[in-house]
Amino acid sequence: MIFLDRKEELSRLNGLVKRGEGGLAVIWGRRRAGKTRLLTEWVDWHKGCYLVADRSAPDIQRRYLADALSTYLPGFNEAAYPTWAAFLNRLVADAAVRGFKGPVVLDELPYLVEHSPELPSVLQRIVDHDAKKARLTFAISGSSQRMMQGIVLNRNAPLFGRASENLRIRPLKAGYLLDVLTKNPVEAVAWYSLFGGVPYYWELALTSQLKNTVEAADALVLSPLGVLHSEPERLLAEEMPSASFARPVLDVIGMGAHRVSEIAGRIGAPVTALTPSLARLMDMDLCAREVPFAASEKSGKKSHYKIMDPFLRFWFKVVGPHRSLLSHSSQQMRVALFRKFEPALCAESWEELCRDAVPFLKKGSLGPEFGPALRYWTTGGPEWDIVAASLDDSTLLLGEAKWSRKPFNQKEIMKVSNELKSRGVPGKLQGQYKNIAHCIFVPALDTSFKTQNDCIAIDAESVLKALRTPD
What we know:
5-stranded mixed beta sheet, Rossmann fold, Trna Endonuclease, Chain: A, domain 1, 19 helices, 3 domains, Arc Repressor Mutant, subunit A, alpha/beta, 5-stranded parallel beta sheet, single chain
């Protein structure tokens, strides 16, 4: 698959090399998000060295890495290295002699630290002194977010404050699906509802030559032989330390529980017992805590928890609860199950994409420019899908997101618009804004649709265009 986006991350990493002073870059984020591809593209551009660790014993790891380094530093593998200090000291010394400035990337660092807890302290000394003198650029990376945070971000960690660049890699923006799996914006939203922004999943669908979301869902996920059939279990188990203990929380959120009291009730545990699981899942970018627009971030009673990743939402709504059924179902039965859930999955992802796009829509699309959008809800009251304030605080945007693969015509848009307006303004926000703007977000508009002053309509093409990094 072609290398997509990461313009800002590459700009920062390239800047570190171009400064010619050496230094340390830290790259971390959830598994499958594209860290390795970013690092190999960067290394290849600068003719640097990419090393990847595994869970072998330290002596064996140093031998493997020495063999890899010998391509760039001839003779490096002719010696034995009893410690990481000996290994890194030789690396820096040889690089200085040969004028090799790197970057030297050490990927999956947590695997090494698991068996050699002294390694971060050794790296600290190397980065602070020897590498700086040699003007050698180092980069460390890892998918175990808890361990990477402990190694670099914890104030007591040896490498705290040493990184010249600290990059958290998140999934790709939805707009890039149009470069990979489809040219149709409506179908791109459907693909996003299945695989989110995870490039590894996109590549699986691409290389398997799966033509649509139904084929991809069945072949890769629903079938017991599918490569992603047990993916969530692997994601949790491979985290260091394992996050498998948090699995029940994902199960009940997937089944529709979003308030912490509901989650606790379905699991059969006290609310206080959920704190470690929820915190871990949020650290891993798998879950998120939502509060209504304009509510305090500390508002516990109004908080909702949701699964952030569309693929995991799909898995815990469709695969997890039906695992036994899927184990002996025909392809026809699996496809029927997916078709039953797909519209709701698409609708939820579409609504999220619309909110994400609001601050980045083409200037003038909504009138003034708006800040981040959120949902708004009250217990027992109406809900608004999209609420945002203009940057000058003069205008409140109220939006409704509707999903269908069929284009919406003028009559349908006006009906949705009238329903939206009939709800008025959320009670807490009444009288706070001079102007109220209404917008309907639909995947596609009928060719007969004509924009009217009191009814703005935005389609998937505009939303996905906003969800790309500007050139």
